[in-house]
Structures are given as C-alpha cells and as structure tokens.
Amino acid sequence: MESKKSKQNVQEQSDFTIGSVRSAILRLAIPMTLAQLVSLLYNIIDRMYIGHLPENSTLALTGLGLTFPILTVITAFSNLFGMGGAPLFSIARGKKQSHRAEEIMGNTFTMLVLTGAVLTVLGLFVKRPVLYLFGASDATIGYADDYLSIYLCGSIFVMISLGMNGFINAQGFAKKGMLTVLIGAVLNIILDPIFIFVMDWGVRGAAAATVISQMVSAVWVMKFLTGKQAILHLKRRYLKVRLKMLKEIVALGMSGFIMSVTNSIVQVVCNATLQIYGGDLYIGIMTVVNSVREIVTMPISGLTNAAQPVLGYNYGARAYRRVREGIKFMTLSGIAYMLIIWAVLFVFPEQFIHIFNSDPQLLKNGVTPLHIYFFGFFMMAFQFSGQSTFVALGKSRQAVFFSIFRKVIIVVPLTLLLPQVAKLGVMGVFLAEPISNFIGGLASFGTMMATVWRKLKEPPKENQAGATNA
After folding, report:
1. Domain ranges of the chain
2. How far apart are CA 110 and CA 94, in angstroms?
3. Which of 33, 162, 208, 434 is surrounded by the fewest CB atoms within 10 Å?
4. Rounded to an integer, what distance in angstroms lies between the CA atom of residue 143 and that of residue 155?
5. HSE on the CB side for 43, CA within 13 Å?
6. Whole-model pTM?
7. Tens digit of each residue's pLDDT (9 = 90 or more) over 366-391
C-alpha cells in the first residue's frame, strides 16, 4: 500500500500540469542550482588550488585558462545531444508517449559515447599546436598541455554525466540529478589537494582528480537511469541510433551546442587578442573574470534550466496559460537576481578576484577589467529567458540564431575592433561583453515576446479544462 502511495506521489511530482507553476520550477531549480554549484567545483576548485601554487601560480592558472576553449567544445557536444534530447523527452512525456521518450534517451546516450571517443582521440592528436594557436606562450604551454592530456582521457565520462543528467531532472528527480554532480564534486574536492600538493603533481593532479570524479558521476547516472526508481528507463533496445530521431535531437540541441562553441570561439579570440595587447597577465585576468562569471550566472542558469522541463511538459500538454506563467516568473526572477549580483561585484571586486589568485599584480590590474566586463549584467537575464523559452518549446531555429548572434556576430568583431578604437587596448576586449549583453539580450527576448508569447496568449478550447489546474 505504501509502495503504491509513494509511486503516486512520484507521478504527481513529475506531472508539471498539476499545482503551481512557480512551485514546480522552484522544486527543480533549487536542487538543480545546487547541482550546478557543485558541478562548477570540478573546474573552479582546480583553478583555486592552481592559482595559489607556491611557485608560478599565475602562469599555471593562465595555462589552465588556455585549455578552456577545448574543454568548452567537449561541453558543446554534451549539450548538442543532452540539451537536444532532454526537452524532446519532456515534450514526449507531456504527450504520454513513453516509448518515444525512452527511444530519445537511448539515442542520446549512444551519440554521447561515440562522440566522446572521437573527441578523445582527435584532441590528443592535435592538442599542442592548437594550444599555441589559442594564445599559449612558451612559458604557459607546459601547464596547458599537462592538464589537457589527462582531462581528454576522461571525455566520455564527462559527456555521460553532463549529457544524461538532464533525463533525470526531466522526470522530476531534481534531487537525484543534484547527487550526480555532488558525489563527483565532493570526491574532486578531496582528491585535488592530495594529487596537487601531497603527490606534487601540480596541474596534472588537478586533471586526474577531475577525471576520476567525472567517472564516478557517470556511473551514478547510469545506475539511476537503468534502475527501478526512474519512471522511464535507458533500455538496450533503444540504443540503436535512428536517423530521423537524431535529426530532431540535433536540431533542438544545436542551440546549446552553438552557444558552447561560440563561447569557445570567443575565448580563443579574447586570449589571442589579450596576448597581443597585454600578454600572459591579462589572459590570467580573463581566466579569473570568466571563473567569476561562471559562479554568479549559476543561479540564473539553474533557474532557466529548471524552467525548461516545466515549460516543455506544459507545452506538450497544451497548457499554454501555464507556459506563459512560467516564462514570466523565470524572467522577473532572473532580472532581480542579476541586478543584485551586479551591485555586489561593483562593491567587492577584489574579494572575488582573490578567490582565484593572490598575485598582487593580478589583483591590482584585474579590478577595472572586472568592472567593465560586468557592466549592465542584468541584461543577461533577457538572453537567458528568451533562449531557454525557445529551447523548451522546441523552437530550434530561433534558439540557434540567437546563440550565434550574441557571440559570433557581436562579441567576436567587437573583441577584434575595440582594442584599436580610441587606444582602448586590453580594456576593449572586456568592453565587448557588456555591449553584447544589451544588444543580444533585447533581441532574443524581444523576438520571443513577439512570436512565442503572442501565440500562447489564447489557449485552444480543448485545453481549457487542463489549464484550470494552475
């Protein structure tokens, strides 16, 4: 009897057409945000330890920063299949198409494994010349190569843990999804000081700790999705890739993929430009600024990622009024949060920089770039909300366009041009980000309001009964 009651409670929690939309989003957002916080620790903890090494800490941190574009590409392929498959999975669940949902999950898993294997081999073959191309100097190449060589060997584990965890969250098990990264991150925190300082492996120790931790996270994901607790399961018969379904997954995941790839392109362009105008010091400063950005955008990212399965499920169930309510809540909450963060960063910049490095020169020269980079930071909330709505509702073309628009069409040209304008130099590189936030955020959100929001304004008559459950 208790088992039946427990199963009913699980089903109710995973049916996002029941109860308050805000509660459904927050129920997922809180553990998902905590999960993302913990997930950040995989790389953030590495940077914190490396940035405080007894010798050559700034060079080592800069070397680590040079690997970011390549690590971002691995994340991009995780997003291509994971962020493409999970929203389709949610929409299929909303339509009560369980077999289709499980097939989407199986196809996603297969592509993550195959792509991870290819990226490992390719990355190990081309890593050194690519690092030089990305702005490495003779002083930093050793650190970058050491870290990347070990990290690439765990690419498959990274892709499984990142790409498949969305299918746990999409079933309403946000706490289980949080455990995916919590287990690995705690292990990473334990192993990092042992490998880096006790074993004296330096950056190689940081990479080894990360790979082992991601492997444990991947095992946890697989155990859950094939176990009894999951509502829908990863099944062997659905692992064979079906081309038509793969096209659907890739079409929707292309937004997240391009967003990550464009982030990688921006990192490459920034590092190469900073090497010309400022040298290794300013690449180190950009590494710190990007690390701070990852920390402070985590809650808004957790909120918008949590909203996606709720919006997608209600869209699939044709509960359009609830979709509008979710978009409104996601946007207003994001703006409020980012206004607060902008103020905190403006008042306490040194404290955030000091988390990652204690070099007096980096601290002295890093405050102004950080202030410039985060100017008008709240505008990013509009980009997050518009982009997440397009992804959640399966609007792949719009999602892809605005991923390209902000980074490639705005940031990259500005990064190359602004340093030459009015002798801005390195400050021009940091100025490109706030300009793109204003233009890209308004364009993405404005288009969403003019297209998606307008069509959701009048729900069809056959959905009126379902919509009354709000």
Report:
1. 16-459
2. 24
3. 434
4. 19
5. 21
6. 0.72
7. 999 999 999 999 999 999 999 889 88
